[in-house]
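Request: How about a record?
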Amino acid sequence: MGSREGERPPTYGIPPASVRLARVLAAAALQQAERFFTGLRESRAEPRSHVKEVAAAEGDHALYVHMPFCHQPLCSFCSFVRYPFDPERSRRYLKALAVEAAWLASTAERVRVPLVYIGGGTPTVDVYGLAETIDVLRSYFGRGLAVSVEANPIDINDESVSVLRSAGVRRLSIGVQALTAERLRRLGRLSHTVEDAVRAVEAARGRFETLNIDMIWGATGDTRGTVYEEALRALRLGASQVTFYPLMPPPGRRRLMMIRGEGPWHPEEPGLYEAVLRAALEAGYQPATPWCMNRGSRLIDEYVVEYDRFLALGLSGIGRTRRYVYVNCFTPEGYMRMVERRGHAALLARRLSPVEDMLYYASAMAFGLRWCPAVLLERYGRLAAPLSATVQALLRMIGEERRGDCYRLTRTASLYTAHAVQRSLYMAVNGLREWGMAAGV
């Protein structure tokens, strides 16, 4: 049963003390992450050191590939690096991407890549070019790649679905974002309509191993009732996953929103999260992350949950291998020049301190809704003992139970806290993207 417009549906209740704790942890995470990325902006990648670090990588790594071109008008809510689609510019970019893929495969020879996540931008803006790129990736990283692709609803129809299936795409994620014309307008998502979104889901449903749709919540004007109703409508479209992303504005946009009196945080944000969670559970979905509501699929929306090490191709791609983090340049022309000159486009790079590495690993573990003290202690030794003990005490206070070697995060308070911390980390990444695009590097 739904609720009447504007009515507050019953919630699962986040205790006020848990909300306060989540906000303290989120603020600390944002401060720590922004400090790291500020330092990273000042740490230019040294080409020979970069080659050495990538060559030393071994074992399983996910691969992120960035497609930066989008339909116009560009979405105002999006903080990813994106540029208006131009066919010739896109073709030149894809050629450079193939060159960088060849460099990466020959340099990271001891790495196995089970999964490639192709994000953007809008990868499906040129679906045939995308299929050719997937073939290139398979030629370098193996025919068994599990391929996940993001899509705009206006690109998805019977023809494009057939192309993507022929290319071996296993997981398709459609950026629906909102299911009312008014919310699309408020989000600045003007490239598709609600009818386009519904048609796209219908065209793709049942034709991929995993079909995900992305939704956004936390916009000005959202209420518990409207978020709950829209979440239910999204869940009832029949996708195997629905991922509900909170708005995550970078620093510049946060300042602008505050000047306009729009936030940046929604005044009912805990209640909105409760509404999303309630709708998902009532519709038969379970949280795979605080945002990804899943109904039996193995491939979920966030590769960082399964792979704490990942390589990157394309402009603005971020890689992490061992304790080394690198970021590619942010402009198409800069990317193409760098790849032509040296095979890769690493612009920034920095080694993580043991504490930074541990905090990242711990946050990814919690985002995957688990806490495994033995794993953390085995990996980081005595360094992890205070963090592990503190988190275990908090989980017991919330009422989480240990199952075997790990805690499984199932309580609303735990889910909300993991959401708040991860949002802070992603906002810090968005700050780096905002800087890179503004600097034109």
